[in-house]
Amino acid sequence: MDVSDLIDGLNDKQREAVAAPLQNMLVLAGAGSGKTRVLVHRIAWLMQVEHASPYSIFAVTFTNKAAKEMRTRVEETLKSPVGGMWIGTFHGLSHRILRAHHREANLPEAFQILDTDDQVRMIRRLLKAMNIDEKKWPPKQIAWYISARKDEGQRPKDIQAYDVNEQLMLRVYTAYQEACDRAGLVDFAEILLRCFELLQQQPTLLRHYQQRFRHMLVDEFQDTNNIQYRWLKLLAGGGSNIMIVGDDDQSIYGWRGAKIENIKRFLDDFDAETIRLEQNYRSTATILKASNALIENNAERMGKSLWTDGNQGEPISIYAAFNELDEARFVVGKIKTWLNGGNALQDCAILYRNNAQSRILEEAMLQEGLKYRIYGGMRFFERQEIKDALCYLRLICNRQDDAAFERVINTPARGIGDKTLSHIRDCARNESMPLWYAAKAILEQKHLAGRASTAVTKFVELIEHLSDKIDELELSEQAKQTIEVSGLMAMYQAEKGEKGRARVENLEELISACGQYEPPIDEDFSSPLQGFLAYTSLEAGEGQADEHEDAVQMMTLHSAKGLEFPLVFMVGVEEGMFPSQQSHEESGRLEEERRLCYVGMTRAMDKLYISHAESRRLYGQEKHHSPSRFLREIPEDCVEEIRIKTQVSRPTSTGRFSNTITLATFEESGYNLGQRVLHAKFGAGTVLNYEGNGAQSRIQVNFDDVGTKWLVTAYARLESI
Ligand SMILES: Nc1ncnc2c1ncn2[C@@H]1O[C@H](COP(=O)(O)OP(=O)(O)OP(=O)(O)O)[C@@H](O)[C@H]1O
Ligand SMILES: [Mg+2]
């Protein structure tokens, strides 16, 4: 293969980065300037020109999906497989190191990953045992505290807690850590920290990896947190070359501990060369101009300029919806037009600030029969029935897994009540042993009453029987047997209605997922089941149900990072939603929200729609918002405003979450949506909504001075103005 193939199709600056001598480098550039492309070409260049073995390359991406794509792109460029190369997320790669050296890391061979749900459950249990009121100390908040400390590399012993609040959280952190260690469980933050400590404490191991990974590359560097940075520094400390690419304007995980300052820290620590890319290849000139203008409102920037020689393109359309249903209908209408124009659904993305916003859009999409895929939302492996089944498998693999034990001991119900459970928990705590062994000990000591004792014996026998029986079977057969023999399948089959049916289908889907699973050849798992369980924890978010179907891509703004789509909708761009309410309260947060807006806008290649709603019902509350300040920061000549005054759709009060959206009979009211009216007491306002018939009917008006009110139409005596 010709070397020119590696740099053809790159601009001068990009070439400079790809073909640079072996050195530390920072590629700092705005969105869509080809940073990721440079990274891929650099890997190919290292192998082709510098004769680097794939084995010596270590690349970090932001998601597993991005890692897969990157591997494919390198293979396409080089026209040969690159099996031994390590590409993955920080978590995935650390996890891999921990697996290979679990003993040195003080972990059982079958250690399991504790997801956020399990983590909260475990903390709740600890709070109870410690007599701490969970209303005052929400487990979620404590989980957050623990992860944040771990992201900073802090163990309980490293923390000086001065006030009582923190002292309490610290006590829980300590107890939590002990419980995790006892059970061989690691949470997400622990994966990174444990791996960092492993490398730090085992010089021989560290040297091994330092000598192996001569070439390190990191995409989306602006979102690394403290422990990730220190981890990289440690690993690169043996004289490896490290190339990081990033954009300070796209740093959007500050709230989770990411530090933009790591970019400057890198320049100091690594004596790196900076290369800036300035040409944008992704978006139309209009989209680029608008996003550049927006981000200029941030004070703290490293400063960049971006230009494009692409065409002007269409203006950005801003739609002022009456409410969230109107907004959803608008978006779906535009998508249908797009589809009818011969375009693919997958080229279109809907981006929102919070996951909860997806519901209403999903409904509208379902109603129109449009396929969609939620990227990183409620995922298959997180569904209740799937987690039940996985917990059985986890317990079969590792009896020390307390979280799994807790979840399945009485699912399906087998007569093991709270009292028996507390008994087991007490024993586990007193004897410092996992719940499983505590249960067995209690049985041996005959401490349980007859019925409870029989029930627990049956459970213990079930797990032991399954574990013996399935050992020799194929993975999918293992799953099948477990789901059936445990009684899960029968339990969900007995559940009536659509939901039960869906759960059974999901369990079946899990069996087929096991059948399709291929353990990675180059990773150290003691069994295919082990490998599968790790896969479900790490990749859950990205393994979409039907990957090959053409579908609209729906995701939060955060998970859109690094991606691009010809057609993009950004919805809910309102004050209080985006920027979020909390961002007003903490310093620096508003700038982070603006960066998030910049990330969203720069995902669009050809056409961008932005919408906001005057009234929105979310989390069960009706709220009124003005358009986001970010909209005012977009130059007028980049924008076209759309406002259609038609009837609004609003589901009946009982049918809110059904698939039928009924049309309110506005015509009957004698008023129009959006019409300006005057009320004798409340003054002037705008008509927003209408429901009911005749004498029962009510009208909703947003009054300029007193806010929104529902009035009985017959008595409101509204005058139109
Ligand atoms: N020299 C080039 N010629 C033509 N197209 C290019 C060139 N460089 C990059 N592109 C294209 O521009 C688009 C954006 O590139 P890429 O995704 O690498 O940008 P990025 O800087 O990583 O963006 P982000 O900051 O959003 O991650 C891609 O479609 C890519 O293929
Ligand atoms: Mg990128």
TrEMBL record:
EC class (word): isomerase
BP term (GO), one: recombinational repair
Domain UvrD-like helicase C-terminal: 285-562
Catalysed reactions listed for this entry: ATP + H2O = ADP + phosphate + H(+); Couples ATP hydrolysis with the unwinding of duplex DNA by translocating in the 3'-5' direction
Translocase in keyword set: no
GO terms under cellular component: cytosol; DNA helicase complex
One Pfam family, short name: PcrA_UvrD_tudor
Binding site for ATP: 29-36
Similarity field: Belongs to the helicase family. UvrD subfamily.
PANTHER family: ATP-DEPENDENT DNA HELICASE SRS2, UVRD / RECB / PCRA DNA HELICASE FAMILY MEMBER
Keyword hit for Endoplasmic reticulum: no
Official protein name in the record: DNA 3'-5' helicase
Keywords: ATP-binding, DNA-binding, Helicase, Hydrolase, Isomerase, Nucleotide-binding
GO molecular function: 3'-5' DNA helicase activity; ATP binding; ATP hydrolysis activity; DNA binding
InterPro entries: DExx_box_DNA_helicase_dom_sf (IPR013986), DNA_helicase_ATP-dep_UvrD (IPR005753), DNA_helicase_UvrD-like_C (IPR014017), DNA_helicase_UvrD/REP (IPR000212), P-loop_NTPase (IPR027417), UvrD-like_ATP-bd (IPR014016)
Positions of the UvrD-like helicase ATP-binding domain: 8-284
EC number: 5.6.2.4
